[in-house]
């Protein structure tokens, strides 16, 4: 057996012959029983339980809440780029024509402050490069 966790075998039912060339043979890639799925590290995964509240409080128009939710997300370990992306998604939705026709103008205006405050808070926390483009300010 090879040390490679994936090995190529000819004739999937015949495990006694290995063939890495595949020349003229029916070959299949078989997963070694020694290979185990590694749990994905949470470091790079967005933490929705921290990001969704940011979007909700921005939509609700609460500046202090936006600041608190950004701080909470960063302190809980959410990557700055995920927080920034959340803010940018809300800002993008706010600018879409379909959103603007369905939402009252005062609601759209009310979102401006929390969007800016969320971005400012993230910048202050060092969660992102302050020069990174974002439609949220």
Tell me briefly what this model is:
This protein is mainly α.
Structural class, please? mainly alpha
Largest sheet: 2 strands, antiparallel
The level of helicity is 40-55%
Looking at the structure, what is the overall shape? globular
Based on CA atoms alone, the radius of gyration comes out at 25 Å
Helix-strand topology string: EEHHHHH
**Arithmetic mean of pLDDT:** 76
Q: Number of domains in the coordinates?
A: 2
Head-to-tail CA distance between termini: 59 Å
Beta strand %: 5-15%
Task: Tally the beta strands.
Answer: 2
Which regions are unreliable across 5 or more consecutive residues at pLDDT < 50?
Answer: 4-23, 27-36
Task: Explain what you see.
InterPro entries: AhpD-like (IPR029032). With 137 residues, this protein is mostly helical. The chain folds into 2 domains: 31 residues, no CATH class; 80 residues. The protein contains 5 helices and 2 strands; from the N terminus they run E-E-H-H-H-H-H. It has a two-stranded antiparallel sheet. Helix 1 packs antiparallel against helix 2 and helix 2 packs parallel to helix 5. The termini are far apart.
Highlighted features:
7% strand; 2 domains; AhpD-like; single chain; globular; 137 residues; mainly alpha
Helix-strand blueprint:
Layout: E1 6-10, E2 27-31, H1 48-60, H2 63-75, H3 80-95, H4 97-102, H5 105-124
Antiparallel strand pairs: 1-2
